[in-house]
User: Which sequence fits this backbone?
């Protein structure tokens, strides 16, 4: 605790970044010179599905934003219909064992980086946010969403047992009975339904408005001490991340075992077929 506090104070002494604009193919980071807020735009066509390289790019963008002492992160998408379609299902289908293990570790690390980020995090959900797309939004501290899209974790519908840290992401935002029903049904919520259950904080009519609301949210911490804020956030969130932080190997092993079962592979094949068929109609 003392070590991490010292590290944070050292970070606090560094200059607030005034302008940084770094693009990779998969992510785009723009920092507002006045506010120090970084907008991290997911940019993996066609639907921001998370493969190994994309998870890596997201994690490294977030770490870089934090190390540049920005005042907060807004997560959004360059696609105006899809925030993220979740994990790239091709990574899970008949996987190469080594790549699958690396992929899953990246997933764990990306989640920890976002969920326990030292800086305020907000999601401008400008399109569908499915499965891990929803998890990323729910891992942020604030969510604003455009109308007529969908959000939720429907893993049970395609034969995926939801790992504890994903359950915990939902539990950070929603009451237990709501989480239980939503996960067991594999419920996908409309924007309006998501607002009613408080999965999102607000509905807005444009991406610009969403970005402004997120910036206002991050600005609301201007008067707080960033070190005290970050440590308090960590205290509140650590119990939900404890299992994964203390024993990532067990979660990794259990996930890999499950992904490799014939039961999971068969239901994944069927699900991917449905997804492709939809486009041929
Ligand atoms: C952060 C730590 C998390 C740890 C987690 C484990 C938790 C377990 C829970 C979930 C795991 C997942 O995330 S699995 C991913 C589940 N995602 C989906 O089921 C989304 C499926 N996609 C859609 O419903 C739609 O694509 C869409 C609504 C997102 C967009 O619709 P649209 O019509 O705009 O686009 P298309 O359907 O035509 O898609 C274009 C193209 O992309 C392919 N596609 C879409 N999603 C995926 C995906 N997730 N993985 C791989 N490929 C995907 C789709 O088949 C189309 O391909 P073709 O052009 O070749 O037909």
Assistant:
């Amino acid at each position: 605790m003392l070590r991490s506090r010292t590290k944070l104070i050292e970070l606090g002494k560094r200059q607030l970044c005034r302008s940084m604009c770094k693009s990779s193919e998969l992510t785009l980071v723009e920092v507002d010179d006045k506010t120090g807020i970084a907008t991290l735009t997911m940019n993996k066509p066609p639907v921001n599905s998370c493969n190994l390289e994309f998870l890596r790019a997201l994690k490294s963008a977030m770490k870089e934003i934090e190390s540049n002492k920005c005042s907060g992160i807004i997560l959004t998408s360059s696609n105006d219909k899809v925030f993220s379609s979740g994990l790239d299902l091709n990574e899970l289908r008949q996987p190469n064992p080594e790549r699958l293990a690396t992929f899953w570790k990246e997933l764990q690390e990306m989640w920890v980086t976002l969920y326990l980020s030292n800086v305020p995090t907000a999601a401008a959900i400008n399109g569908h946010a499915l499965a891990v797309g929803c998890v990323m939004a729910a891992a942020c501290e604030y969510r604003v969403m455009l109308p007529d899209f969908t959000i939720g974790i429907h893993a049970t519908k395609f034969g995926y047992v939801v790992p504890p840290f994903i359950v915990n992401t939902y539990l950070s935002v929603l009451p237990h009975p709501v989480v239980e029903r939503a996960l067991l049904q594999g419920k996908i919520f409309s924007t309006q339904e998501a607002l009613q259950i408080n999965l999102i904080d607000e509905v807005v009519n444009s991406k610009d408005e969403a970005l402004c609301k997120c910036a206002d949210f991050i600005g609301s911490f201007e008067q707080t001490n960033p070190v005290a804020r970050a440590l308090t956030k960590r205290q509140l969130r650590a119990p939900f991340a404890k299992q994964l932080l203390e024993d990532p190997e067990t979660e990794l092993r259990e996930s890999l075992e499950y992904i490799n079962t014939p039961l999971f592979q068969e239901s994944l094949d069927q699900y991917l077929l449905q997804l492709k068929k939809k486009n041929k109609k």
Summary: The mean pLDDT is 91. Residues 172 and 240 are 8 Å apart (CA to CA). DSSP finds eleven helices and eleven strands in the chain.
